[in-house]
Amino acid sequence: MTVSLINTSGRCQVFVLAHETYCNARGACACDVSTGRNARRMPTSLTLASGVTSPEVHDAVLAVPDVVRAVKRGEVSVKRHVPEPSRPVVASTRAPTVTTSVEVSRADVKAKKKRGAS
After folding, report:
1. If we measure between CA atoms, which residue out of 64, 69, 67 comes closest to residue 21?
2. Which DSSP letter does residue 101 get?
3. pLDDT in tens, 8-60
4. Maximum CA pair distance of the chain?
5. Residue 24 to residues 7, 12, 28, 81, 102: CA-CA distances in angstroms?
6. Which residues of 1-68 form beta strands (DSSP E)?
7. CB 81 within 8 Å of CB 2
8. Are strands 32-33 and 13-17 parallel, antiparallel or unpaired?
9. What CA–CA distance (Å, rounded) separates 81 from 6?
10. Pairwise CA distance, residues 67 & 77, whole Å
């Protein structure tokens, strides 16, 4: 499931998505790995300007203590995105009726015979 965070405070907020909390709750590592001899994991972060809504993020962000505190203080509100259930395709049991030009011309001929005086 995904969520969006809405910054309702009057200031910019930055949340560090630490490996111990965010990645463990997510079940997969989302850290950046630096290159070079001393390759290290560097946690990602989420920056929210004042009054801005974040893009959809994994709901594991709600396990980060700083995010939990901000939500409790009312500085951040959470909007959950629930996927819509897929609707099954229903096949029509009735066959579509198609009138051919031959049938139309026969109906016109019969009508003319009835109307005409002989």
Report:
1. 64
2. H
3. 998 999 999 999 999 999 999 988 888 877 888 889 999 999 999 999 999 99
4. 107
5. 25, 26, 7, 21, 72
6. 2-7, 13-17, 32-33, 41-42, 44-48, 57-58
7. yes
8. unpaired
9. 13
10. 10
